[in-house]
Specification:
Blueprint lengths: L2 H19 L12 E5 L2 E2 H12 L2 E4 L8 E2 L2 E5 L1 H8 L5 E7 L2 E6 L30 E2 L6 E2 L7 E5 H5 L6 H5 L5 E3 L9 E3 L15 E5 L2 E2 L14 E8 L3 H4 L6 E7 L8 E11 L5 E13 L2 E12 L16 E15 L2 E14 L5 E2 L15 E15 L4 E18 L9 E22 L2 E22 L2 E26 L2 E19 L6 H6 L3 E15 L5 E12 L2 E5 L2 E5 L2 E12 L7 E13 L2 E5 L5 E5 L1 E17 L2 E17 L1 H4 L16 E14 L2 E16 L9 E15 L3 E8 L22 E2 L6 E9 L1
Parallel strand pairs: 3-7, 13-16
Antiparallel strand pairs: 1-5, 2-4, 6-7, 8-9, 10-15, 11-12, 13-14, 15-16, 17-18, 17-44, 18-19, 19-20, 20-21, 21-23, 22-43, 23-24, 24-25, 25-26, 26-27, 27-28, 28-29, 29-30, 30-33, 31-32, 33-34, 34-37, 35-36, 37-38, 38-39, 39-40, 40-41, 41-42, 42-44
Length: about 800
């Protein structure tokens, strides 16, 4: 066992032993009556005292509520009763969000509607009244829209469910949503796709098709998925795209929004989680993470998150005589300081940092013994991500303002085997450096009395530098690289109005002006002339309209339709011995669907949607004549997508869920550069789009004692076949595999012991058919799933 792996395992075992010593299955829960003695005063002064006495955590949604005067509470009662008595007459109410977590929000206004004129026939009845306090709010709509009034397909994932049995990164989202896909080069190197809108397998100068956000802060512009670990995340919202009106460039497929838990000034809180894992056919691993929430008084608080993960390798290299070569280490953390100056203002200053190191790549040789690859060199990768944020918010009665500002840096260094018969140790190295500055300011009125709107403006400046080279022990040859810059100014707005009590219409538009420029890096003499011939500086203007309509004909039913566009700006790329420009591309989508019920409420809920997208001037990365990644507009295409989600809860504590997606994608018109290669059918398919995917899940909770429960959660995901990319070199088949998992957790809301088993069938599969494009004469490559892995973990909260 490697020294670092041994240290990780020993540290994890110590953590488990210490944690088990304090595991109290029969601890008194927050739901039990307790003696409460809280005097009258300001909410900011008494919440911590009530939380300690009732054994709960209390968050306040509206900073202005901290100054509210509350009534005294004395007597023996449950936490919910104490909160209701304390908040009586304040215009606020408490909503339970977890077993021992409560959130204080303003009581929704109930405005009497004028009596409508009597009509002889009423073909559509208004929906039955629903409780807004428990209705799901789509915060990614940027104007806090109720799910029942949202025109589009949205998925909301609970952060606690994602962390069950061990905190993962993007992989946790992929295992829960059939419609979200990824390449599988490795952590920190992947590209994400939603709704079948996928461009290529490489991370080049093209912008991502999926926008990723931490709260309201954009994580990246045209860098790969940073794969942040989902520690201390409240929930994840996935909006299927395009989402151009509110999110602009790079949201062709949709957006993924991670909502972290905010600093809580009401109570001190500490959590720890860790575990050790054993991988069949591979090396052991371990993980540890923690969170500290520290109230600073006066409505101020500091929240800190840190974690370290070591995933054991499972691929052997018989040529070099080494085993388990692909260990991956991830270390990271977050910090947020919340300052509440008063009068409804809040200031959040924070940062994110994460480092991911992979000893070697995770692909294997096709046709070789399972989980083996014979290569003469190590193909490691390093990813570094850093983000600094400043968010200023203000709340008035009925209006909200927020200014979100960020500076991000992303570095990715990759190595590929480029060995030749005369030089088997030759490597291809690719270094990608990205720097992004982003600022967005918006003012909005949450939907109330059937009317709401948002107005905003944003600024973005992004620079990406791509350097490439061949290296070997005897020589080093620089290859032509490229730098792309973009500065973008944007104005956007969207509003909705209830034209009938049961019918809501939404319209919006986004106008962007972008200044683009590019330069060659390490330019060879033969490339200089082609670089001069390219218009490297230019301006683009884009107008993105959107329209939507939602009808609620009967209670719990929503019919919706929408039209929206999305785009990505162009840039410069390198192909063989010339620099060339690729143009911007645009997606236009029409979507219609129906929803029944609210996820997590009632016995049954379901959603079905159908979308049709036209994609013009598709930007995609492919392999040029020298076997190097390049980017071009490959042509036009269409994508038809059908998605279905459903959940049924037959009895208390038991639920089943289903997710399915069908994609039919094809390139309808090839660009002149690729037209000559159109003899094979595979060139007519958009890459990395599985024709179909299905997910089945089950969750069961059994109460073993008043404060102790056993939770079982399992899933099985089938990912259908797809193609790796465009062109004969990248036309390999991939996909067509089943991923499974099972989690068991025993404990209460504060302490728990868990066992997680992934890849129950120990299936190999082929998640991604890319290995290295530089070594010929092999049967190809495949990326297997991680073999069956068992993790034993412990989580503790104070």
């Amino acid at each position: 066992m490697a020294p670092d792996a041994r240290g990780t395992v020993i540290a994890g075992l110590r953590f488990l032993i210490v944690g088990c010593a304090v595991l109290l299955p029969n601890a008194v829960g927050a739901a039990s009556p307790r003696v409460i003695d809280v005097p009258a005063g300001r909410l900011a002064d008494v919440t911590a005292r009530l939380g300690m006495q009732a054994g709960i955590s209390i968050a306040v949604a509206d900073p202005a509520l901290w100054q509210a005067r509350v009534a005294p509470v004395r007597g023996r009662m449950a936490a919910g009763a104490a909160l209701r008595r304390m908040l009586r007459g304040t215009g606020a109410q408490a909503v339970q969000v977890s077993a021992d977590g409560w959130r204080i929000v303003r009581t929704p206004l109930r405005v009497a509607r004028p009596m409508a004129a009597r009509a002889p026939v009423r073909t559509l009845a208004p929906p039955a009244p629903r409780d807004p306090a428990v209705d799901i709010v789509v915060t990614a709509s940027k104007r806090d829209t109720l799910l029942s009034h949202y025109a589009g397909t949205v998925h909301v994932l609970d952060g606690g469910d994602l962390a069950l049995g061990g905190v993962r990164g993007t992989e946790a989202i992929l295992s829960r949503l059939a419609g979200v896909a990824s390449t599988h080069l490795g952590s920190g190197r992947n590209k994400l796709f939603i709704r079948g809108i996928a461009d290529s397998s490489f991370t080049g100068p093209t912008q991502a098709t999926v926008g990723q956000y931490l709260g309201d802060i954009r994580l990246s512009y045209n860098a790969p998925d940073p794969d942040l670990r989902l520690y201390d995340i409240a929930r994840v919202e996935v909006l299927e795209g395009p989402q151009g009106t509110l999110y602009g460039a790079g949201s062709l497929g949709g957006i993924i929004r991670l909502m972290p838990n905010a600093p809580d000034p009401s109570a001190l809180a500490l959590t720890m989680a860790g575990g050790v894992s054993a991988t069949r056919h591979g090396a052991p691993g371990g993980d540890v993470g923690g969170m500290a929430n520290v109230p600073l008084g006066g409505g101020n608080a500091l929240r800190l998150v840190g974690y370290a993960v070591s995933d054991g390798g499972y691929i052997d290299n018989p040529l070099r005589g080494t085993d388990d070569i692909n260990r991956t280490r991830t270390v990271g953390g977050r910090a947020t300081l919340r300052i509440a100056p008063g009068d409804g203002w809040t200031v959040d200053a924070g940062g994110v940092i994460q480092s991911t190191d992979a000893d070697d790549s995770q692909y294997v040789d096709r046709g070789a013994p399972p989980l083996t690859r014979s290569s003469a060199v190590e193909q490691g990768a390093e990813a570094r991500y850093a983000l600094g944020t400043l968010v200023v918010a203000k709340t008035w009665d009925g209006l909200r303002f927020q200014s979100s500002n960020a500076v991000a840096g992303h570095r990715l260094d990759e190595l590929f085997d480029a060995g030749r018969p005369d030089d088997p140790s030759r490597l291809f190295a690719q270094d990608n450096r990205t720097r992004m500055i982003a600022s967005e300011n918006r003012l909005w009125r949450p939907v109330r009395d059937g009317y709401g709107w948002v107005l905003g403006g944003s600024f973005l400046d992004n620079r990406t530098r791509l350097n490439r080279r061949f290296t070997s022990p005897s020589a080093r040859a620089l290859l032509t690289g490229v730098t792309n810059r973009i500065t973008e100014y944007t104005l956007y707005g969207e509003g909705s109005v209830a034209v009938r009590p049961w019918l809501t219409a939404t319209a919006g538009a986004r106008y962007s002006r972008a200044r683009l420029s590019g330069d060659g890096e390490d330019v060879a003499e033969r490339v200089v002339q082609s670089l001069r011939a390219v218009v490297a500086r230019r301006r683009e203007r884009d107008l993105l309209p959107s329209f939507g309509i939602v009808a609620n004909p009967v209670a719990d039913v929503a019919l919706f339709a929408r039209y929206q566009q999305g785009f990505r700006p162009g840039g410069l790329s390198i192909e063989t011995d010339r620099v060339r420009r690729f143009r911007n591309d645009r997606v236009t989508t029409g979507e219609a669907g129906v929803r029944y019920g609210q996820p997590g409420r009632g016995r049954f809920d379901a959603a079905l949607s159908l979308s049709h997208s036209r994609w013009r001037n598709i930007q995609a990365d492919f392999m040029d004549g020298d076997g190097l990644p390049s980017t071009a507009n490959i042509g036009n295409g269409v994508i038809t997508s059908v998605s279905l989600t459903a959940a049924v809860r037959p009895v208390a504590g038991l639920s089943f869920d289903l997710g399915a997606v069908f994609n039919r994608s094809r390139v309808t018109e090839l660009s002149p550069e690729l037209l000559a290669a159109s003899a094979t059918e595979r060139l007519g398919r958009i890459p990395n789009v599985a024709r179909h995917a299905v997910r089945l899940g089950a969750d069961y909770v059994a109460a073993l004692a008043p404060d102790t429960a056993l939770r079982l959660s399992g899933w099985a995901n089938y990912v259908g076949p797809s193609r790796l990319g465009i062109g004969p070199v990248l036309g390999e088949r991939q996909g067509d595999y089943v991923d499974t998992g099972l989690v068991a957790r025993l404990g209460d809301a504060r302490r728990g012991l868990s066992i997680t088993v992934t890849n129950l069938l120990d299936d190999v599969g082929n998640r991604f058919a890319l290995g290295t494009p530089f070594v010929t004469g092999r049967n190809g490559y495949l990326t297997p799933m991680r073999p069956q892995t068992v993790r034993v973990g412990l989580d503790i909260a104070y």
